[in-house]
Specification:
alpha/beta; Undecaprenyl pyrophosphate synthetase; 10% strand; elongated; EC 2.5.1.87
């Protein structure tokens, strides 16, 4: 004979009522049964509240175990080919950055651009590479022979708005000085020319940009590269979990780009 969950709960409830009755003095029940029933009502209400509390804690435990046990990236319908991360905080923890890079490599992303406006990551590139080598993370500057290594790029404010200003001054000098060997006429300036002068390689534009720091600003992140980029925000890069990063890619996988007719 097997009992269902409801039958077990009913039996436990009856046992609890029996215990409550046993704790109450028999004389008080004979003299004024309504007071006893009133006390019993509060006992039952207390039991219900405790059960709700247990169920709530149990649900939280199940959610925690589920998030910890599975990475969740197996269910992603698509992942970005090129990911950009803009660190908008003044204090950047390179150990946390290397941890994020390891997650991104595990997800199969091929190109990663790291950007911070102060150039802290660029100044400490050697230390970041050291952390990545310790974590056995294969990237383009490492000694790994794997073909599927991560193409890692590091950028700063020098690669953003300042690059546009330098390009404008360069074009101005080349159009004004006709004696220059590389004269550019005003009618020769086109979108294709600007793109070729700004782009230092043939990498595609980022599909996703993650901004860490709680600011709704790109802080000069390569503005000509994010025309069609999906932008998501994280409060900070410190204390992140892998599930936080994967949740962004779940949102991205639901995005649909429409370029018009």
């Amino acid at each position: 004979m097997t009992l269902s969950v409801y039958q077990v709960l009913l039996i436990l409830f009856v046992i609890y009522l029996f215990i409550c009755f046993k704790r109450m003095p028999l004389n008080s029940f004979k003299s004024n049964p309504w007071i006893v029933l009133k006390d019993l009502k509060f006992e039952i209400l207390s039991l219900i509240l405790r059960c709700v509390h247990w169920l709530y804690n149990g649900a939280l435990w199940v959610i925690w175990v589920t998030r910890r046990g599975g990475s969740g990236h197996e269910t992603l319908s698509k992942i970005p080919h090129h990911l950009g991360i803009a660190f908008l905080e003044k204090d950047i923890d390179l150990k946390e950055v290397s941890k994020m890079i390891s997650w991104i490599q595990e997800l199969g992303i091929q190109i990663l651009t790291l950007y911070d406006v102060n150039g802290h990551i660029k100044l400490n590139t050697k230390y970041l590479h050291h952390l990545l080598d310790q974590g056995n993370i294969a990237y383009n500057s490492s000694k790994s022979t794997l073909k599927s290594c991560l193409n890692l790029r590091i950028a700063s404010h020098l690669d953003g708005k300042k690059a546009i200003a330098d390009l404008a001054n360069d074009l101005k000098s080349k159009t004004l000085h006709s004696y220059s060997s590389s004269v550019i006429k005003p009618e020769d300036i086109s979108e294709k020319l600007i793109h070729s002068l700004l782009t230092t390689d043939s990498l595609p534009d980022p599909d996703v940009l993650i901004r860490c720091g709680g600011l709704e600003s790109n802080m000069g992140f390569l503005p000509w590269h994010i025309r069609l980029t999906e932008i998501f925000d994280l409060y900070s890069h410190k204390g992140l979990r892998k599930a936080d990063v994967i949740s962004i890619f779940h949102k991205y996988s639901r995005c649909e780009k429409r370029f018009g007719a």
